Structures are given as structure tokens and as C-alpha cells.
Amino acid sequence: MTDLRRRLNAPLVAGLAIMAALAVVAIVAPFTLREAADTLGGAPRSAPSAEHWLGTDSLGRDVLARSLVATRLTLLMALGATALSAIPGILIGASVWFGPRTLRNLVLRLIDSTVAFPSLVLALVIAAILGPATSSAVIAIGVAGIPAFARITSNMTASVIHSDYITTARLLGVPRWRNFTRHLMPNIGGPLLVLGASSFALALLEISSLSFVGLGVQSPDYDWGRLLSEALPSIYSMPMIAIAPSAMLIIAGVGAMLTGDGLARHLDPWSSAPARAPRTGTVTTTAPRTSDLVQIDDLRVTAANGTPLVHGLSMRIGAGEIVGLVGESGSGKSMTAMSLARLQPDSVTVEAATLRVGDLDMRKGGRRTAMATDIGLIFQDPTRSLNPALRLGGQLTEVLTVHMSMLRRAARRTLVDGFERVRIRDAEHRLSQHPHELSGGMLQRTMIASALATNPRLIIADEPTTALDVTVQAEVLRQLKRINQDDATAILFISHDLGVVEALCDRVLVMHQGSIVEELTSEQLAARDVSHPYTQRLLDATPSLSLTDARQEDPA
Ligand SMILES: Nc1ncnc2c1ncn2[C@@H]1O[C@H](COP(=O)(O)OP(=O)(O)OP(=O)(O)O)[C@@H](O)[C@H]1O
């Protein structure tokens, strides 16, 4: 219950409240107010009074009662038209991606040409062909809205249909309809709900417009559009007659948009993740030293829904030091590193008492060149950091040409030197290749070469060896160690593997649930001299395959 209350956001509550109130009016008003709304013979065009709150129309009928009674028909028509647009539109837009390519291209071209045609004009043409009637208005607006749903669904499907999880599901023989409901819809459902809500608001206006020009609801029935049409002759003398249905239209439109916006937020996995209680007992790492390159004090990273992802974290990295940041998946290692490099996701808030790399205050923007050249980044999966459509030379020299004003030729020369340094043979040729033409280990080495090209003072390596096989992993670690020794480059090395960290780092910080729980020197780690139970658990989970250990375990 508390979970549901926390997940209901303000727009959703407001939108649902408005739509629920309108639903009550739509159900109750035709039963209770029909007589006041339809009875002729009262004083025509009377001013608002205690008996008729918004006055009467030209035939003496109560204006407010008529607007409220018209709610049911108007909402049902808008709902019908939206369903008529959404259901076929979504089915067409998604199913084209499950069929043959030629059919897909043909259907997409057709959709494109209909989308280019204004939907209200299309609806007017359809309504004129079908003749004036309530059903004609619904069909016209519904059919005119199909291309928009089909186009957007198709665009969104295209962005997820080639993702690994759908390919895997197809390879595993998951039926198409199940792929559609299980993998596709949850990924595209949020934006479609928002589109549905805005289409409903638009359908309200368009159906009212058709009724207003006489192509929609016909007498004796009436919707808000027809009421507006009836109000037109006396709009200056009796504005109330027009104001009442207009106000209803605006309220319903706002209610629909708020509901759509709220639903989208509600379905956003990041904004609905459960809040985690901050843990106490965090460790502040060694006191400030003048040689500290990185200084972080009281770093707090908070998700959009208020969940603390990193809290009260402080750390130092000395110039030329290799510091390991270890912890299980989700403990906040990447979030800490990305916040330090000012590359955190937009959806989170970063606050800190101090966040410095050298003389750069990373809490402030600006000084982009200094940020780009002082900090080198190496990520876990090099294929995701490189643009597959561009040659390596073009993309890896960018930082040198943009931030260090190097000419293209000089930038390439620097990169070739860098490639040779990380033992990539035939470097010139490699620069003219695309990322897919290199192995994973080679790509990771190109990333290291590129991160080093600007002579950074700090390298942030976020699980740089996780995606690599053990031999390549050892080579990459050796490269990092060599760079640190040759150039005194500081390294923040992120890993969940204490064994790897032990081999490389001078100091290790153990992270758990968003804060540092223990700090160890490499000697303490080698001697397994740890005090926090979480560190002990991490050590227990680290397989040891060193020769010494193997001999000890197996005396034979
Ligand atoms: N964009 C985001 N918005 C909100 N929360 C996020 C976002 N990205 C990650 N998180 C959450 O922040 C927390 C820390 O994530 P982080 O990626 O820093 O973990 P990690 O220790 O680096 O894990 P791993 O070793 O798996 O990379 C996790 O609970 C994660 O779910």
C-alpha cells in the first residue's frame, strides 16, 4: 500500500482525479439532469441565477445541465476514436517488423505519406464521405489517427527489435506474439500511453470540431461541440452558453494529458525503483594530503525519485597512485566514477562538499577542454564506446583535434605512437579500420591508447577487463601498470574482483550500498588483513588460482 502511494506521482493523481470526476459526471448526469437539460419553455437566454447557475440557452434550457449531460457522449466518442486509432496503429507499426522486408518498406512508405496529410483534413474528408452522424465522426477521427500510432510504434519497435534480448528470444524459438507482448510492449508501452492520452485530448477537440461544423453529432443528441455550435449566434450577448462546454473540453483535455504524463512517469523503471535506506558506518579515506590529485568529500548521488545511490562518500587519490574501487554489482562504483568525471546520467543529482581533480572543481561546468584532457576514461565494453559507423582514426583523434587544437595529421601520429605503446601492431592500418574489424582485446587497447593520448593526470578505468578473456585481461592490466609507472598517471580502477585489484592497486576502497565500508593497503589485502564482514565475504567469493595456493591446497 505504502509502495503504491509512493509510486503515484502528482500528475497521475491529479489526472486520475479529474478523469474520475468526469466519469462520475458522465454516468450520473444523463440520469439526474436530463429533464433540466432538455425541457423547453423556460425563460430564454436568462442570466445566471440560483435556479440556473450558468443561465439558459435560446430555448430556455439549463446551460450547465446540458454541458454536464453532454459529457457522456463526448467522452465515449473520444474514447472510441482513440481506440480506433491506437489498436490498428500499434498492430500495424509493430507487426511490420516481424514480416518480410519488402512488405515493411511498402507499409512504412504508405504510413509516411498518410502521416504527411493533416489528420483533421483527412477526418473531414472521411466524415464528408460517410455523411453527418455520430458514428461518422468517431470513424473519421479514429481512422485519421491510425498513421500517427503506426509511425511512432514502428519507430520505437525499430529501436528495440534488434536488441540482444529480442534476438536471443527469437533464437530460443519464443513465438512472435509472445515476443510482442513480453519483450516489445513493455519497452514501448510508456511512450504509447502518453501518445494515447494526447490522442484522446486531440480526439476531443477534433470530434467537437466536426460536431461544430455540423458533420458530427446530430439533433436531438448533443456533445460539447454541438453545444458550442448552438452557442455561436449568441456568443456576445450570452457568453456563458459557450463558456460551459469550452471549460468542460479544457478540463477533460488537461485531465487526459496529466494522466498520460503521470502514467509515463509511473512506468519509468528509474523513477519507481524502491528507495533504499542509507547505511551508517561509512569510512572516510585517508586525510587530505597536498599531493592528492583527486579529492572527494561527502559525495551524494540521488536518483530522480529520491533514492540515495551514493551517500556521504569521501576519498583521495594521490598523484601517481592506483586506487581500486571494489564492491558488488550495484554498490555505486560507476556512479561515483561518473560523478567525478561529470558524466553522471541526467536523471540523477550529484552534490558534494569537494569534488576535485587537480585544480578542476568538477561540481562546476565550464573548462571542458581541461576536463577532457586531464581525465581519461576506459569503459568495460569498448564496442559500446565506439561508433560502429566510423573508422577508428576519425573518432579516436577527435579529442586531440577538438580539445588540443592538433592538426589531423599530428593527431594521427600521436595516436599511432599510442597504439604502438599498447602493443597494437600495424597501427596506421588499424586507424583506417572500423571497430568491428578488431578483436575485443585490441579494441580495449585502442581505448587505452586513446585515453592516454592527451597525457591525462587521472585515468578512470571502469571494469576495463571484465569483457576480456584472461590472457588479454592480464595484458591490459600490465599496460595500465606500465603507464602508471612511466608517466605517474593516477588510476581509479573499478572492479568487482578483489583478485584483479590486488594485482594492480596500491590501495583499495571497498564499496557497499553506496558508501565506502573499508579501506585497505595492497599489503593488507595480500595478507587478508580485513576487518569489515562485507570485505571478508568479497574475499571468500574471489577464486584463487595462483600456483602457490594450488600447491598448498593439493600437496600431492
Ligand atoms: N540512471 C540511473 N538512474 C537511477 N539509478 C541508477 C541509474 N544508473 C544506475 N542506477 C542505480 O545506481 C546504483 C549504483 O549503480 P552503479 O552502476 O554505480 O553500480 P556499480 O557498483 O558500478 O555496479 P556494476 O559493477 O554492476 O557496474 C544501482 O542501484 C543502480 O541500479
UniProtKB/TrEMBL annotation:
Subcellular location: Cell membrane; Membrane
ATP-binding listed as a keyword: yes
Gene3D superfamilies: MetI-like, P-loop containing nucleotide triphosphate hydrolases
Domain annotation ABC transmembrane type-1: ranges: 71-260
Residues covered by the ABC transporter domain: 294-538
Pfam families given in the database record: ABC_tran (PF00005), BPD_transp_1 (PF00528)
SUPFAM superfamilies reported in the protein's UniProt record: MetI-like, P-loop containing nucleoside triphosphate hydrolases
Membrane-crossing segments per the record: 12-33, 73-98, 110-130, 192-215, 235-258
Protein keywords: ATP-binding, Cell inner membrane, Cell membrane, Membrane, Nucleotide-binding, Translocase, Transmembrane, Transmembrane helix, Transport
Coiled coil: none
Main location: membrane
InterPro entries the record matches: AAA+_ATPase (IPR003593), ABC_Ni/Peptide_Import (IPR050388), ABC_transporter-like_ATP-bd (IPR003439), MetI-like (IPR000515), MetI-like_sf (IPR035906), P-loop_NTPase (IPR027417)
UniProt topology in membrane: Multi-pass membrane protein; Peripheral membrane protein
Protein family: Belongs to the binding-protein-dependent transport system permease family.
Name of the protein in its database record: Dipeptide/oligopeptide/nickel ABC transporter permease/ATP-binding protein
